[in-house]
From TrEMBL:
GO cellular-component term (any): cytosol
Enzyme Commission number, as recorded: 2.7.4.8
Pfam families tied to this protein: Guanylate_kin (PF00625)
Annotated protein name in UniProt: Guanylate kinase
Domain of life: Bacteria
Keywords: ATP-binding, Cytoplasm, Kinase, Nucleotide-binding, Transferase
Chain's role: Essential for recycling GMP and indirectly, cGMP.
Guanylate kinase-like domain location: 5-184
Family to which the UniProt record says this protein belongs: Belongs to the guanylate kinase family.
Record-linked SUPFAM superfamilies: P-loop containing nucleoside triphosphate hydrolases (SSF52540)
Organism: Peribacillus simplex
Protein residues bound to ATP: 12-19
Annotated localization: Cytoplasm
Length: 204
C-alpha cells in the first residue's frame, strides 16, 4: 500500500535541458506528478504568469521567506534567488502524491541533506560539446558568460555521483521515458521493501 508520495528531484548543469524535459513530462496526458512551483526574484519573462511559472518575489520578500524557514532549499543563480516552498512539498507528499522539483545543483544538494529519502535524478548532456552548443543555441548568454557556464558545468558534472540515477538527455522523448521508468521502478522497489518489512514485524 502506498503511503507517502515520492520527492523527485531533477537537476543537472545549466543548459542541459532540465526545463525542456520537465515541460515535456508535464505535457504528457495523465502525468501523475505534482510540479512544485518555485519562488524567484528574477523578473517574469514575456508570457510568464505569477503562480504558474514561478511565484515572483521581491528580494526582501524572498529573504523574509528564508528567515522564516519557508524554503526547503534555495540558491542564488545568475544574480537571482530561486527556492522551493517547503509547506507545499511536505503537504503534497503527505497526501500520497509525487512531487517533482526541477532545480539547479546547489539546491539539489541541500534537498539531499534535508530529505535523503528523495529520488535524485541527474540530467546529463551527451557531451560537453553538445552542452556548449545548447547554451549557444538558446541565445541567452554572452560569449564571456558561456565560458563561465562551461567551467561551472564541469564542476557540476563531477557531482553526478551524489545522485541515484543519471539520465542522458540525448533526445527529449527518450529522457522523459527514462525518467518515467525510474519513477515506476522506485515505487515498486520502495513498496516491496515496505510491505516485506511490515510482514516481518507482524510475524514477530
Ligand atoms: N535551487 C533552485 N533552483 C531552481 C528553482 N527553480 C528553478 N531553478 C533553476 O534555476 C535555473 C534558472 O531558471 P530560469 O530562470 O527559469 O531559467 P532557465 O535557465 O531558462 O531555466 C534553472 O537551472 C532552474 O532549474 C528552485 O526552486 N531552486
Ligand atoms: N534533447 C535535446 N536535444 C537538443 N536540444 C535540446 C535538448 N533538450 C534541450 N535542448 C535545448 O537546449 C537548450 C537548453 O535547454 P533548457 O531546457 O533551457 O536547459 P536548462 O533548463 O537545463 O538550463 C534549449 O535551447 C533547448 O531547446
Amino acid at each position: 500500500m502506498r503511503e507517502k508520495g515520492l520527492l523527485i528531484v531533477l537537476s543537472g548543469p545549466s543548459g542541459v535541458g532540465k526545463g525542456t524535459v520537465r515541460k515535456a513530462i508535464f505535457s504528457q496526458p495523465g502525468t501523475a506528478f505534482e510540479y512544485s512551483i518555485s519562488m524567484t526574484t528574477r523578473l517574469p519573462r514575456h508570457g510568464e504568469v505569477d503562480g504558474v511559472d514561478y511565484f515572483f518575489k521581491k528580494r526582501e520578500e524572498f529573504e523574509a521567506l528564508i528567515e522564516e524557514g519557508k524554503l526547503l532549499e534555495y540558491a542564488e543563480f545568475v544574480g537571482n534567488y530561486y527556492g522551493t516552498p517547503v509547506d507545499y512539498v511536505r503537504e503534497t507528499i503527505d497526501s500520497g502524491k509525487d512531487v517533482f522539483l526541477e532545480i539547479e545543483v546547489q539546491g539539489a544538494k541541500q534537498v539531499r541533506e534535508k530529505f535523503p529519502e528523495g529520488l535524485f535524478i541527474f540530467l546529463a548532456p551527451p557531451s560537453l560539446t553538445e552542452l556548449e552548443s545548447r547554451i549557444v543555441t538558446r541565445g541567452t548568454e554572452t560569449e564571456e558568460a558561456i565560458k563561465g557556464r562551461m567551467k561551472v558545468a564541469k564542476e557540476e558534472i563531477e557531482l553526478m555521483d551524489l545522485y541515484d540515477y543519471v539520465v542522458e538527455n540525448d533526445h527529449v522523448d527518450a529522457a522523459c521515458a527514462r525518467i518515467n521508468a525510474i519513477v515506476i521502478a522506485e515505487h515498486c522497489r520502495r513498496e516491496r521493501v515496505a510491505v516485506l518489512y511490515k510482514k516481518m514485524l507482524e510475524a514477530e
